[in-house]
Amino acid sequence: MTLHVTNTLTGEKEPFEPNDPDDVLLYYCGLTVSDPAHLGHARGWVHVDVMHRWLAHLGYDVRHVENFTDVNEKIVARAGDPELGADEAAVAEHYIADVLADMRGLNLKRAEVYPRVSEHVPKIVDLVETLVEKGYAYEADGSVYFDVTRFEEYGKLSNQRVEDIEEQGDPDELGEKRHPADFALWKADGVAPDAVHEHRKADHPGDDGETPSGQTWDSPWGEGRPGWHIECSAMAMTHLDSSIDIHVGGQDLVFPHHENEIAQSEAATGQQFAKYWLHVRLLETKAEKMSSSLGNFTTVGDALESEGANVVRMFLLSTAYHNEAVYSDETLAEARERWERLERGYRTAVKACDSVDARTTADDRDLRNTVDRARREFTEGMNDDFNTREATTALLELVGAVNRHVDDHDEYDYRGLREAVETFDELGGDVLGFQFRGETDGSAEVAGELVELVLSVRAAEREAGNYERADELRDELEAIGVTVEDTDDGATFRL
């Protein structure tokens, strides 16, 4: 089975055929850096990361670009907070640093580039000028708008007709536009004070003097700022090509953002902008989408600190990107159990493979057949629109075969176990991005010995009646990722 993807543009699951048989051009609409990243954002990141990894596994050279939107009224609204920075650029830098740390914490492959809007304003101006010259855009009081009535295919992504779209953009733009559905490519002047106050947090320290208006740039139409939609077209075409293979984004971006990207890009170039449009379903919690504006989110940093990258990745990958995903104590617990089962299976396979009981002459058909079946089912799942739920399930079935083999045999099938370990490493590690720790890893052994030493000191403190100090040692261990459990037979721990 070849890779098939569900294309929002056609509404069909289609065989994946890139423009170049060897290369894949992939663009992902990145984060507007006005708040800490939450698990809803991480869902998109991790699924795009696995798309990248699977395409590379299939032999493609993947050029993956993901932008940062660092020019936005929500960012301006954060300016002046002593913890964030005095102006729009400083606030954006603060949150970009946090996002990059979150990405590395999640073990994401690096994109080829992470372009920022502020670095591409000349490219944006050039693209807007092209649209004006071709008659698809018009200037009004220093702003420039795209004329949706001039692009005959407008609405083809979201399946809407122009006459049914009542309005888009800010209401105060309506008087300048020829059609209510026209959208801004360039906005005159800076951000209006009303817009800044609309997006201000309740705990913002307040204004000292004038309300910030954000960065502005010179243009043929006067001083101003780029519109939201034009930025992604300019950055995608700058760093990839005028026609790309895959454009990925959140489901909430189908309209207006991605619809407008298509219109302005194809109007400017006369070429199809993106062949396949893939949309990640939003993460829900308590029947609402997880959102910064709703305040119902768990930050990526907090999730990594409490659960670790492997559990977070398992949680996000336990549901295919195109299916509904819910964040709750129950779904998180399921992900934790699935990861711990997978890691225990991996460690069991490594330990048995490297033991003196592993024999060249042993041959367990069940184990070897399950390795082959796991690889086949993993591949079928990933080729079926990147179905990570099926892929993780295939690896967990292999865990069951490894456990049965070790439990039922005194002499182990070395070749079967080696193939199992390689399957975990290749498919679980290289493709799904999990980080396994085998029992034979030297650093893990040393870490375990050090924890045992600390626990022996803790036991001595408890025997001496120094319970407060014993509790402090337990808390310090848990702070660095060591879970301690007191039992009747003494303390046990898990890294």
Automatic annotation (TrEMBL):
A motif ('KMSKS' region) lies at residues 289-293. One of its GO terms (cellular component) is cytoplasm. It is found in: Cytoplasm. Gene3D superfamilies: Cysteine-tRNA ligase, C-terminal anti-codon recognition domain (1.20.120.1910), HUPs (3.40.50.620). Binds 1 zinc ion per subunit. Residues 377-443 form the Cysteinyl-tRNA synthetase class Ia DALR domain. Residues 195-216 are annotated as: Disordered. Keywords: Aminoacyl-tRNA synthetase, ATP-binding, Cytoplasm, Ligase, Metal-binding, Nucleotide-binding, Protein biosynthesis, Zinc. SMART domains: DALR_2 (SM00840). A motif ('HIGH' region) lies at residues 31-41. Its main location: cytoplasm. Zn(2+) binds at C29, C232, H257, E261. CDD domains: CysRS_core. The keyword NADP does not apply. GO terms for molecular function: ATP binding; cysteine-tRNA ligase activity; zinc ion binding. It holds the Pfam family CysS_C. Its EC number is 6.1.1.16. It is an enzyme of class 6 (ligase). PANTHER family: CYSTEINE--TRNA LIGASE, CYTOPLASMIC, CYSTEINYL-TRNA SYNTHETASE. This is Cysteine--tRNA ligase. It comes from Haloarchaeobius litoreus. The lineage of its organism: Archaea, Methanobacteriati, Methanobacteriota, Stenosarchaea group, Halobacteria.
